[in-house]
Design a protein that fits this description.
The structure holds two protein chains of two kinds. Chain A is an alpha/beta fold. In chain A, 32% of the residues lie in helices and 21% in strands. The radius of gyration of chain A is 22 Å and the shape is globular. Classes of the chains: A alpha/beta, B alpha/beta.
Chain lengths: 327, 336
Amino acid sequence: MSEDVLLSVKNLSKTFSKPLGLGDKFANLMGAGRKPETVRAVDDLSFDLRPGEALGLVGESGCGKSTVARLIMGLLSQTSGQIEYRNTPTSQMSAHDLLKIQMVFQDPYSSLNPRMRIGDQIREAINVHNIVPKAERDAYMASIFEQCGIDDSLTKRYPHQFSGGQRQRFGIARALAMQPDLVICDEPVAALDVSIQAQIINLFMDLRKQKNLAYLFISHDLSVVRHLCDRVAVMYLGRIVEQGPVDQVLDNPRHPYTQALKASSPKISTGKRNFEPIRGEIPSPLDPPSGCHFHPRCPKANEQCLREMPKPQRLSETMSISCHLAT
Amino acid sequence: MSETGPMSEMILCVNDLQVEFPVRDGIITAVRGVDLMVAPGEIIGLVGESGSGKSVFAKALMRILPEPGRICGGSVTFRGENIATMSGENLRALRGDRIAMIFQDPMATLNPVMRIDAQMIEAIRAHHRVSKSKARARCLEALQKVGIPSPEERLRAYPHQLSGGMRQRVAIATALLNKPDLILADEATTALDVTIQAQILYEARKLCEETNTALVWVSHDLAVVSGIADRIAVMYAGRIVEDGPTADVISNPKHPYTRGLIQSVPEECDHGKALHQIPGLMPTPANLPKGCAFAPRCEHADNICLLQDPLVSFDGRQSYRCHNPLNAAQVQEMSS
């Protein structure tokens, strides 16, 4: 593997299964042979992330994008495949080294302790992990707050005294205090109002410039990803269907699903938009369609799509797509 | 607000509506004098951020305000009658028949222990003397119209057996059952995925055009609203600050807040550039600033803005509440 890869995910899969109920267990004793229901939440996923790069992961709810974040953070363990950080599998890394990967969650209210002053929560992490020597801690905290646009006088307050946008700033400050190289952002602006969303997006961009952070930015909003990321991977039912540079993938999408996603995304317009939306809904991951997962909704699907799962094919150095009909 | 036609032609005419919530520490005014006119068949997009009072306003139109909210001033004239002072009996006859509402969470709208057919038939028979079998046929037709596959099967299902998108379609079909004159949709697609949202917006617009039903679409998302509405009204701190035809409001906003909202949305052309941001936060209804509520966040604010509340001005196309409306040059600056 080349030296300049920060995070490498190879053939990552995660299946969840529901344990058999008592009735099914009895039935099995009688020889019914019932199998537990399984969901392939993440199915053979591969991507690389270089230092300082921002990769967007987009898809609709239930496509497995948050599961990917949890797998990388080690909050879940994978069924198969590898996650390597600087050429070391994350499962073999020490707790201290894993601090280099931090996460920012969608709902900052549920990820902050409601009974602890906001400044203390951030200080606790710095103390526990001994990020900077004791004498420098106050100055270090102040610098982190300043970078995140938080007024120093606010740190004595509790989370409920802040608005959503400010809480998200604390969520970001806490992640940054650990001096990470990679920040995994799981829908960090989805719950915010547009004017506040712009403030937080600007903060993400500034911090990245200052600290050369790499982001794995998970979002359902194409315009946010288009704005913030260098590359994008589009997921559908646990698989990546298309990945490449944002301007190529989102301006000229090749995969029918990416095309549909782009056409469906609301855009400010001066008149009524006229288009036929794609039909159907995301199928249940308990019982995914055969072949290409997207074929029941795809306007171009043919016999081959029904039978065979498309393999990712490289269109260029940076672009890859999983579709039988891509040319 | 905008005089697009004589009053009598309007299906809904809201005049200086005020809604307040008496609480322990005093009175909170959530809607502070809103004027809105809706013509038959017109689609109005009402945009505002959280806390702007848009949901309270929509609920006040139906008189379904949560306790202890109450209408404390103004009128809501619907087909010549004032909803604000209407008796409970007349209101019941109106709701679900002439005015229907679609909420954000369809699971909260639908009764979880009733089959879809039972609750849809009930919605018809509450207002009209129709036989059950005829009502059922109408339900079936309504489900087909909103694009539900195998409607016969869905009619026999319970709400939990349907997906979120399907449930919202059922809610829309139910709203359409009695061919209302006005539908209020409060964040009806916010909880849905974009591809499903696009389908619902498409169906809703098509149905309103076919049946000449007026639609007030309340949303926080300017992009969603601009794609569906004939007219856009922008709400800020309990007031409509700008109201006009979609094309005018989007390409030639008069109010700095509207411009701020438009600029806050990331566009394709400016990848990686800093987004325009509106500094600060919306004031809460409990501590509104003196003068224009937007002044503390506004880059064009001057002394008058800080002291005097702006009245409504009308320039022939759109109406706005601003002392220093944006001119063409300032709007130009926004697109560059």
